[in-house]
Structure formats: structure tokens, C-alpha cells
Specification:
Shape: globular
Largest sheet: 5 strands, mixed
CATH architecture of the largest domain: 3-Layer(aba) Sandwich
CATH class of the largest domain: Alpha Beta
CATH superfamily of the largest domain: Zn peptidases
Helix content: 25-40%
Order of helices and strands: HHHEEEEEHEHEEHHHHHEE
Number of helices: 10
Number of domains: 2
Structural class: alpha+beta
CATH topology of the largest domain: Aminopeptidase
Strand order of the largest sheet: 1-2-6-3-7
Length: about 325
Amino acid sequence: MDALAYARANGERFVADLARFVTFASVGADPRRARDVRACAAWLAERLRVAGLDDAELVPTRGHPIVRGGRRGASGRPTLLVYGHYDVQPPEPLAAWSTPPFRPTVRGRYLCGRGASDDKGPLLAHVAALEAYLRGPGALPVNVECLFEGEEESGSTNLAEYLRTHPRVQNVDVALLSDTRMRGRGRPAITYGLRGAVSAEIELAGAAHELHSGQFGGAVENPLESLCTLVAGLRWPDGRIAIDGFYDRGRGARAEERVAMRRDAPTDAEVLRDAGVAAGTAEPGYTLHEQTTLRPSVTLSGIAGGYGGPGVKGVECFLHVGDRISIYVFVAVRT
């Protein structure tokens, strides 16, 4: 049986495998989910063995384990590194889900659940393809190494060390991952470059106890107001980043890239429709899609501090000793 016939014959089982994969609450950034993450990794390693990669294993790191497996029997053929991640984003707020996030639900042609598309579905599609070759015709047309991590959603903390210390994943010809967007059904895309990212937490602190706004309002600096001022100063009114030197080392866009993107990329109207908003914030002279791909960005991903209960509390800043008032900033740069 050829690989495509095998895949078609086993399609329902592959979908059932994805449903099982989604049931693991593998939120890598949440320490309370560490046991779920490891159970998910163990299931994935076994799934690689079922596919025919007998050497599949869990590789311990200082964080969550890496799942690897490979097949090197195609003499004289290139070696393909297949990358993916089995960790998922936190599902909160849970009230926004119409069904529980880790209870996979089929709606029409879609299987819904946390991680079904990012990145468990695409990852498992690669595993299914490997199985279709190894259990169908019995051989792969190329050599393959699989590397699946459990920390992608929290910064891939231990991936670089693993890559430096494991020669098997260094000696490859090309890397393949499916963790990016397509233009739509029937319109596959090959993404050849992505922006790198770095995150930072900025913390401000005021008095070591709460101050009543009637006694100190306007006379004492309020950490929350200072954070808001800081955030407001990250951009110029025209959308450009206002941080000194921010654009100095980023790679600019080639003219042919911009021509191709204007021909094939989503229009501003499509981007706004997908986002569900009426207006965008692109820099002058750039489309919204170019802003998300070619241009660097600074994104505020969270802010915490002050009184968060019902009603109003008349204090300058609700801050106990040891509390923090923070903003979380996400920077993406194309290099």
C-alpha cells in the first residue's frame, strides 16, 4: 500500500489520535500543569513508536521534556528535521469557552479544543505522514529527525541548550515546522521567515503601604499612573516605536518582498475583519500585513496592579508590602 492510500485508510484513527492529544492539559507555562505536560510528552513519544520510530524517547531538560525520534535509513538522501511543540497556551478565561477547552468537540469539519491548531494538529499531521510511509510502503524517502518541545509557548527556555548538546539534531539539511498561518482552505503557504521575540517585565513600586487618595492624591507619584505614562510613551502618534535605537539593527524589507506581499497577502480589510476591529495601527507607508511580518513591534501583553475588587477603593494605589505593579511587554523583531 502506498503512503497516500494508507493515510486515507487510517484517517478516522488519526482524527481520534488528535482528540486524545487535545485532552492533555499541557499548559507548559503553568507549574500546576507539570504532571499533565509530562503525561502528554509520554503519550507523544509512544505515538512516535506507533508510527514506526522505534528510538522515540523523552529527553529531560531543566524544564519540560523534549520528545525526539528519528529514522536514518535513506542512504544518500537529505535529512529533514521536523519540529513542533506539544505545550499549549493557558485556556483562561474559561467562561469564554462554549465547551471545556480540554474536551475535544467536533463541529462540522473542525475538531475544537485548546491546542488543536496550535500546535497539536499540525504536529500530529507530520507524525501521521511518517507513519503512512513507514507502515505503508515501509520506508521514508528522506532521513528524518523529530524534535517536539513542551516550552514553546513560554519562550523555549531549554531548546537552545538541547540543540547545542545533541549532534543528531545538528546534522540536518532542512527544518520543517507547521505552526504558522494559511491564507485559507485550499491555499497552502510556505513561510520562509518569522520575527524573533523577546519579553520583559517592568516593575514599579511606590509606598510600602496603601495611601488614601484624599490625603495624598496629586502629591505622591502613583505607580499605576506612571506605568500608564510609560506605556503611552512606547509609540509615536503615527504608530512608530518611540524607543531610541529600536529600528537600528532590524532587517529592512526588500522591494521584491513587498511586491509579492501586496499581490498575495491579506488586504487591510481582511486583517481588520479577522481581528474584529474597525481600524489598524500600521506605520505610515505599510500595510497591516506588512506591519505584522516585515516590521518590528512592541506589544503590551498584560498589566497588573491596584485594587481589583468590586466598586471603588479610594486609595492612591492598593499596594501591600511585597506586592508588585507590573506591565508585560512583548517585542518582535525581524533580523
